[in-house]
Amino acid sequence: MRYRATMASPRSRQAARLRDRRRRAQRRARRLVLLSAIGALGVVTLLLTAFGSSGSSPVASPLAAETVSSEDAAAVRPRPQVLATIGNLRVQLPVAAGSLTAIGFHGSSDGALALQPVGRQANKGILARLWHRIAGSGKESPRWYQLEGGAGTEELDVGAAPGTDVYAPVQGSVVAVSDLVVGGKYVGSRIDLRPSQSPSVMVSVLHVQPDRVIAVGTPVLAATSKLGRLVNVAAVEEQALAAHAPHDGNNVSIAVYPSPGSLP
Questions:
Q1: What is the rounded CA–CA span in Å between residue 43 and residue 39?
Q2: Would you call the peptide bond into 142 cis, given omega within 30 degrees of 0 as the criterion?
Q3: Residue 85 and residue 58: Cα distance in Å, rounded?
Q4: Parallel, antiparallel or unpaired: strands 82-86 and 116-117
Q5: What kind of architecture, by CATH, is found in domain 64-123+142-262?
Q6: Which of these, 41, 72, 165, 205, has the minimum number of CB atoms within 10 Å of its CB?
Q7: Is pTM beyond 0.85 here?
């Protein structure tokens, strides 16, 4: 018996090619859906990791938990750490690192100069924070907050509990010590310093009960010379830093002015 060889017709070959194309397209579509699902899961995981605590209390834990070693936490004096700059002047941490609760900047209309914060803003928008985390630039320290009461950075608030020792944020000398009165109540003093690094400006330190040795002409060293103790300013005036720090947001307030004649 003879068998006749059969050959596929052009129409059947075309149909087979179409079926192969459909199968390849379906496989590509399934892979695309799978990759999209994995990507979405990764984004959700990143958001939860980066901002999972955003729904909790607005009061942050002390910064010591993030940026301070055990030795720094037990130290009495501040460790050398620059919080802000203006020109060639560097404003250093005025309290021991273990006492620090939060750092904030806000605007002022009394003639103070704008400071350049060091570190990263902790309360930026979610997209900005996500970008910094993806780009690997979200670990700068110290972290600071832009406070309500003005979008500028003319005033620096360094949070700590009342009674905390306050040290000079710059090297220089004392040029004035004056009582600070808020709402008719005494809330410590304002200590004006002339920094040796930039003598054309004045650095004002507020909310301090001065030590007896602090007087006009007293030389001071940054993070070494004690100015006094932090007073409870939050008892007479609500503090913007309270939204980000314990102890009612009590703080050492620091501002830089262009010249003695411009001091308020």
A1: 6
A2: yes
A3: 27
A4: antiparallel
A5: Distorted Sandwich (2.70)
A6: 41
A7: no
